[in-house]
Design a protein that fits this description.
The chain has 298 residues and is mainly α. The chain has helices spanning 2-38, 55-61, 64-95, 103-111, 118-128, 136-142, 156-184, 188-196, 201-212, 214-228, 233-238, 252-262, 266-297, and strands spanning 41-42, 50-51. It is built from 13 helices and two strands; from the N terminus they run H-E-E-H-H-H-H-H-H-H-H-H-H-H-H.
């Protein structure tokens, strides 16, 4: 009798988890599988989809624009992500020192850009550096640094630098919070013992804090990598949707969007999305394996 009651109660668990799996299947799993099927077709959204097999993926391997967009994405991700890690680690450590007054105020200030939408930041910086009507040119002219308005957005290197700065500016506060949580998890006895042994703040940071934060740093690197491969909104706004100038701001996701929703080549766009998915997995696995190998060598 008790066994029957226990079995009947166990069935209620399926009832409560069913809504999640139903929503996941409809809004996540089905689009993923549909996109996979679509990647093997040639479809413009109007005519019937024609099966082309692996032709889209073969085309993808030789697509110079795609690989340029991937290299752009990797460069921007590594540069912005590196700055986020450095500033996040250093500021998190500094703000956790006892001599800092009101650390929570600084953390809130640094985190605030993360609450601003990426599109708003892209529009803001477009307006600031606009050739005509922007705020930067009049300011630089007033202090004598330039003699006439400069069209900043025709310089590919400058545009990439702006993208790196915006992405760093938006997310470095988030990593301050992440690393602060990691530092709080370090035993105070270890830090106190280091102080008794005469280790200064710098040595403590390099020899104790950084090694103990390695799992947190690994998590941060993986999230930066995954987020970087999804770069779209800021580069799209800065590059006017075309990757201007000369493809300098074209990211892989922007190329996928243009291919699918501007050129109406949904089959090839789906192949690009799966190509990005595979690249993200490959980069993440390589990083994790390299990290594990270095741990084993130690």
């Amino acid at each position: 009798m008790n066994t029957r009651r226990r079995i009947k109660k166990d069935h209620w668990g399926y009832f409560f988890i069913f809504p999640f799996f139903a929503v996941f299947a409809v809004f996540n799993l089905y689009p993923i599988l549909y996109t996979l099927r679509l990647s093997f077709t040639d479809w413009d959204g109007i005519r019937d989809a024609g099966w082309v097999g692996a032709a889209n993926y073969i085309r993808l391997l030789g697509d110079r624009i795609f690989w340029k967009s991937v290299l752009n994405t990797i460069f921007i991700t590594v540069a912005a992500g590196g700055l986020q890690l450095v500033f996040g680690l250093v500021l998190a450590y500094v703000l956790n020192q006892k001599f800092i007054k009101g650390p929570h105020v600084f953390k809130n200030i640094f985190y605030f850009p993360n609450l601003v939408t990426a599109v708003s930041l892209g529009v803001l910086f477009n307006l600031l550096f606009a050739w005509q009507g922007g705020s930067v040119n009049p300011l630089l002219e007033s202090i004598g640094l330039i003699g006439e308005p400069v069209n900043w957005m025709i310089n590919g290197s400058f545009v990439r630098a702006v993208l790196i700065f915006i992405i760093w500016f938006q997310y470095f506060g988030y990593y301050i919070i992440i690393f602060t949580a990691g530092i709080k998890g370090i035993s105070g006895d270890i830090l106190e013992a280091a102080a008794i042994d005469g280790a200064g703040s710098f040595k403590t940071f390099i020899l104790i804090v950084l090694p103990l934060l390695k799992p947190v740093i690994t998590y941060a690197c993986v999230t930066i990598l995954i987020g970087g491969m999804q770069l779209f909104d800021i580069p799209y706004i800065i590059g006017k949707g075309t990757g201007a100038p000369n493809g300098a701001s074209l990211t892989a996701l922007s190329y996928m969007y243009n291919t699918s929703f501007k050129n109406y080549n949904y089959g090839y766009g789906a192949a690009i999305s799966y190509g990005l998915f595979l690249l993200t997995i490959i980069f993440s696995v390589l990083y994790m394996r390299g990290n594990m190998k270095s741990e084993e060598e130690r």
